[in-house]
Amino acid sequence: RARALGNACINSIFGNYVNHLFGWGPTESAPLLVLVGLMIAIAPATLGRKLGLKQSITWGSVLYAVGLLGTGLSGSARGVVISTLVSSVGCIAIPALIAFIANQAEPHERGAVLGGIETLNELCLAIAHSTYGRTLALFISDSAPFRLPGAPFVLASGCIMASLVVITRTFAAFPQLAASYL
Description:
Mean pLDDT: 90
Strand content: under 5%
Helix content: over 70%
Low-confidence stretches: none
Number of strands: 0
Shape: globular
Distance between the termini: 23 Å
Structural class: mainly alpha
Radius of gyration: 17 Å
Largest sheet: none
């Protein structure tokens, strides 16, 4: 569920992050978040079909992690916008990974598997909201070990990469399974 932890970063602290960096309120950040929502709606349907599940998971995870890292390390509004859009394209990995996991179950068990995934996702969201908020607060405070307002995005990028390591090892351990989703 490292992916769910990484995924929750934008949802939980993006508004506070861009407010801290650029003084953006809802009026300034909303258009970018609407664009992100559109990308999330369009990218899986278009790119996911062309790439297939395995490549959508792999390349989507890489794009997502790079985008989050860029968002966290960028000091300019332009950099945050570009890297946020990169991470939104990387969201193709999320439905692909859910489909991959669900397809491992027998057809009559897939509903239960999807319910379990959603339950774990909600638990991860509860953990993530608190963790990312506290991380942002720490790294913009006077008691920060070093100033890095984007620390939550760096942490989220690490979560996404950890999930990629797990799925890559799964594909390597079960090559016939990976080959069926090229």
